Amino acid sequence: MIDNRSMPASTVIPVLSYPDVETASQWLCEAFGFEIRLMIGNHRAQLCFADGAVVVTELESGGLTRTGGPFAVMVRVEDVDAHHRRAARHGAAILSRPTSHPYGERQYSCRDLAGHNWTFSQSVADVMPDNWGRIVVENSNDPDMES
């Protein structure tokens, strides 16, 4: 798997939604010991804990996120297009088709048989977050953020 400094190195990343990303991120850091890795405007943050990570996103009106629920799981894979075909073949409800993004990831989202939301992501380029207009939070414990 290619490294991408715009993504946490973890393979499985929970995505949790809150009404206020900044407040939730600060609380998770203070209460649970996470560290902010990356803030993306006021709508998304990447938090790290040892070799793990959590993404905090903005909870939209009606208590839903872009993928239709208050939480999702992101999984980094080697080949997102092959994974998408496999998931569709086995009946996953595809919410968004594989799409390449300026932050160096190719992703698709789906819903499993119980209604859980998943995003599968393939790093296709190593992109520094500040190259696509995001705020990098200095984290002395994250060697991936060095240029």
TrEMBL record:
Pfam families referenced in this protein's UniProt entry, alphabetically: Glyoxalase
On the tree of life, the source organism's domain of life is Bacteria
Ranges for domain VOC: 7-123
Q: Which Gene3D superfamilies match?
A: 3.30.720.110, 3.30.720.120
Q: What is this protein called?
A: VOC family protein
